[in-house]
Specification:
The chain has about 425 residues and is an alpha+beta fold. The protein contains 9 helices and 13 strands. The chain has 3 domains: about 140 residues, no CATH class; about 100 residues, Helix Hairpins (Orthogonal Bundle), CATH 1.10.287; about 140 residues, Histidine kinase-like ATPase, C-terminal domain (Heat Shock Protein 90, 2-Layer Sandwich).
């Protein structure tokens, strides 16, 4: 299971917990503010009834309740009303600042039109309220941190059955296609496993059917090709004057046989993997010789004197496919074959490959010249990957194409000098 899915699920759980915490905190804070205003207004209205019953006199009239003071707007009153009160309209007012203190003020109006002001010093309440706000914020942050850690652990736990199934699916390939085993921890994912197993069974059936078909087709095709080749060789011996035309038939049969070998090697999963030691300086020219007869292309070699332990059939199929492509790309030009270390290169000086086509050159059905099958390069790379090698094409700066086969992991011995 990818870390991205764990991260996204953990982030979703964290976001939900954070949103829920913020919502609960907002509701609690709003309830606190509403309750505080309601209680203070009730206290101040009750005190207003008591204070307004007292004889009217100038200046503020303190209440029996600590921190509550009555102010009346009496003409010529000394001292005058505090300026912050003059700007207030009838009603309840929070957070009124006077002389560095914070007040909750209730402004009322008598039938005579005279206003009165009940001021409640809530500085201590405001201080405690500030601390309460800090505690709520700290609690929210702590809840967010806890939800983040818990979300990551919970997401890993929730996704562990999915990760287990994905890991089992990751072990499947075309060589090891088998039904997935159900585990008790799979839970509801068992339905997905059952569906995958049904699909795997169908794929296995189709693969077996295609392999049987490929084997039968290969057998049926190989017999007439062998007959044509033997007949062409007999005619060459009987009619030497027709060597050129009969030679073309023989080369065509060899090409068809080579393509058939490639198809069969790709279709079979029991492809020859046993490697054997092979003198590359002798073997590469021997593989190339049938395709060079009558060719107008000039071929040069730069092969190091080495012996390699390689799967001969696979390497011969890949090399001859690359050589045939190079010869077809430069019918009257030059092809250079080189082997340095584990890199086998086939260069031609043809027209090269269109850059837009180059990245698709190994796809089946893609060919850059008339008469190409569009399958040789695809099958060559498939064989190369099956043996752990890499096969790449690139346009050369001086013109033409370079095909490079890197024989990764192949054991190499340098041939001893001969007298």
């Amino acid at each position: 299971m990818t870390p991205e899915l764990h991260r996204r699920l953990g982030a979703a759980l964290f976001g939900f917990a954070l949103l829920l915490s913020a919502l609960v905190g907002g509701v609690l804070w709003s309830g606190h503010v509403w309750l505080e205003n309601s209680v203070l207004d009730a206290i101040m209205r009750r005190e207003a009834q008591t204070l307004m019953a007292l004889p009217q006199r100038g200046g503020p009239a303190p209440s029996s309740a600590q921190g509550i003071t009555l102010y009346r707007a009496v003409p010529g009153m000394q001292p005058p009303l505090p300026p912050p009160l003059l700007a207030l309209q009838p009603g309840s007012h929070r957070d009124v600042q006077m002389d560095g203190r914070e007040f909750h003020v209730l402004v009322g109006q008598q039938e005579s039109g005279q206003r009165y002001y009940i001021a409640y010093d809530v500085s201590e309440f405001a201080h405690r309220e500030a601390w309460l706000g800090l505690i709520m914020v700290a609690t929210l942050l702590a809840a967010a941190l806890v939800s983040w850690v818990a979300g990551r652990r919970l997401s890993a736990r929730l996704l562990s059955p999915v990760s287990s199934v994905v890991a089992r699916i990751g072990t499947l390939d075309d060589d090891h296609l088998q039904a997935l085993q159900r585990k008790p921890t799979d839970g509801e994912l068992g339905m997905i496993i059952d569906a995958l197993n049904r699909l795997i069974g169908e794929v296995q059936h189709r693969v077996a059917r295609e392999r049987s078909f490929a084997a039968a087709a290969g057998h049926e095709l190989r017999t007439p090709l062998t007959s044509i080749r033997i007949t062409a060789e007999s005619l060459l011996a009987a009619y030497p004057a027709e060597r050129e035309r009969l030679g073309r038939i023989e080369r065509a049969v060899r090409t068809a046989s080579n393509t058939l070998d490639t198809l069969m090697a790709t279709a079979r999963h029991d492809t020859e993997t046993a490697a054997q030691w092979c003198n590359m300086g002798e073997q590469l020219p021997a593989w190339a010789e049938p395709y060079l007869i009558g060719a107008g292309t000039r071929v040069s070699w730069a092969v190091e004197p080495v012996t390699m332990c390689v799967p001969v059939t696979a390497l011969s199929v890949i090399f001859t496919n690359l050589l045939r492509n190079a010869l077809a790309a430069a019918p009257e030009g030059h092809v250079h074959i080189s082997l340095q270390g584990d890199r086998l290169r086939v260069d031609d000086d043809g027209d090269g490959i269109d850059p837009d086509l180059l990245e698709h050159a190994f796809e089946p059905g893609i060919h850059g010249r008339a008469g190409g099958s569009g399958i040789g390069l695809y099958l060559s790379r498939l064989l190369a990957h099956r043996h752990g090698w890499s096969l790449e094409l690139s346009n050369r700066g001086s013109g033409g194409v370079r095909a490079e086969l890197r024989l990764c992991g192949v054991e190499v011995r340098v041939n001893s000098a001969r007298s």
